[in-house]
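Hi there,

I know you've been waiting on this one. I reran it after we fixed the sequence typo, so this is the corrected version. Both the input and the resulting structure follow.
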Amino acid sequence: MPGLTLALNVSNSILKVVGVNMRSHLPLKVIGLLLLSGAGACGFTQAQVPPRNIPIHQDWALQPGSEVGDFQVVGSLGDVSIDLEGGKIKAPFDGKVQPADNNCIAFTSPEIPAYLFRLCGVNRPRLGEVEAGEVIGRSDILQFAAMRRQPSGTWAMVEPAVDILERTVGK
């Protein structure tokens, strides 16, 4: 941050911020925590990732986001529901995570360019470029849909391979 000088003089326990000396009687561990949680956190923001539109080839009346009574549908025909009990979700390949409709994310990878995975019910997803095995979020109940690109540009739901699901939920 331009114009901000932050230095810690350990021998005199003086914290110098923007040219002002403040005598500190706090233990160095507390000062370190303050630095990490305050000034040290500058710049650790997640890049904006554009949302992904996923036109689905099949047309079902109930899709994630539909309502039944006063309740929201979180999965539909073609989704595999996995009870993760708050567990981690990992990137199955190197790829990209983008927000999608209705509390879902889209995962794509250049390793499998004809496929897209839609994951719904993901808490605090990590968006953007990710590496295989990297945690991309957590979920109580994960709704996983595998899709294959069609010549028309739409996506058709297909059955996901068990090994890809295992990579995703971290067997």
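Quick highlight: The chain has a mean pLDDT of 77.

Best,
R. S.
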